[in-house]
Amino acid sequence: MIQSLADGILVGAVLSLGAIGLTMVMHMLRFANFAHAELLTIGAYAALVFDRVFQGVNATLGVKLAPLTLTGSLIVAMVIAMAITGASAVLIDRLVFRRVREKGGELSMVFASFGVALIVRNISGLVFGLHTELYSKSIAFAVVVSRDPLLLIKPDQVFVLAATLVIMLVLHLVLSRTTLGYALRAVAENPSLAQVNGIPLQRMIVLIWVIGGGLAATAGIFYGMTNHLSPVMGRDLVLPIFAAAIVGGIGSIYGAALGGMIVGIASSLALLILPSGYSPSVPFLIILAVLLVRPNGLFGEVRA
């Protein structure tokens, strides 16, 4: 029970990062982007490629930061992957979503996001193959935190949780204490009014894609550090990420963070009473339960 709870919190940290980027895009651009989870795949594989490149160029960068399996090359690769994923999100918006947004409605945007997701997923499989990949092939031993009850946690999992909390804190400070954060929130609430008051709408849209892409890349890399990389990881994570965003309330960063934890813990605890094949249904049940009680989510507000 305690082990499942700890595992759920660690999984929820990854889901929270993905859900925060998703809820920001959904709140500002008013459409459900089902291609958002594929940004996790782009970021994870971009980090893998540059990690291998830097290890080949400089052997010292490939040294592990014990007791973590994390290396200096992966840290550098992570920063580059965040930039690449943010740029990819902007490029996808320019080539697909902006054109559909100007000519179609919200439903057309949803269908377009499904198409983008399929394209990215199949390109990833074509380029990297359908087999799984690991950032590090060294064995990461779990640390015994408690013997009664038995609780095992890997150092990488602790790092992922701590790094996620730091990223959330930085994002909170940016949105609540800076002019840029006020501008982003104003555009999310009323784009037309914000534009009348001198806020550059298109620039804010680009920025929100960059932020969402960067957070998605980080979530994908953290997922790869604690699990494995696969071209279909976006398909496997899209429902839990959407569930986290909906449970927390569209547009609420704090709600997305809490929603990720709720979905992660619920999915982990469900394995104690349900066969593993039924675990993908847990996010569906959580979404239904929350929508029945609070249609706008735990922290969501009624939109005009």
Feature tags:
304 residues, mainly alpha, two-stranded antiparallel sheet, 11 helices, 2 strands, 72% helix, globular
Structural class based on helices, strands and sheet pairing: mainly alpha
Helices, by number, come to 11
Which spans have pLDDT < 50 for at least 5 consecutive residues? none
Helix content: over 70%
Rounded to an integer in angstroms, the radius of gyration calculated over CA atoms is 19 Å
What's the average pLDDT?
A: 85
Going across the major beta sheet, what is the strand order?
A: 1-2
Transmembrane segments: 6-25, 74-97, 109-130, 158-175, 205-225, 237-257, 269-293
Membrane topology: Multi-pass membrane protein
Organism: Pannonibacter tanglangensis
Keywords: Amino-acid transport, Cell inner membrane, Cell membrane, Membrane, Transmembrane, Transmembrane helix, Transport
Topology record:
Blueprint: H1 2-29, H2 36-57, H3 72-103, H4 106-128, E1 143-147, E2 150-153, H5 155-177, H6 179-189, H7 191-196, H8 201-226, H9 233-248, H10 253-270, H11 281-293
Antiparallel strand pairs: 1-2
Family: Belongs to the binding-protein-dependent transport system permease family. LivHM subfamily.
Protein name: Branched-chain amino acid ABC transporter permease
Keywords: Amino-acid transport, Cell inner membrane, Cell membrane, Membrane, Transmembrane, Transmembrane helix, Transport
Report on this model:
This protein is mostly helical and 304 residues long. Helices cover 72% and strands 3% of the residues. It has helices at residues 2-29, 36-57, 72-103, 106-128, 155-177, 179-189, 191-196, 201-226, 233-248, 253-270, 281-293, and strands spanning 143-147, 150-153. A two-stranded antiparallel ribbon has the order 1-2. Helix 1 (2-29) runs parallel beside helix 5 (155-177) and helix 3 (72-103) crosses helix 8 (201-226). The model has no long low-confidence stretch (mean pLDDT 85). The chain crosses the membrane at residues 6-25, 74-97, 109-130, 158-175, 205-225, 237-257, 269-293.
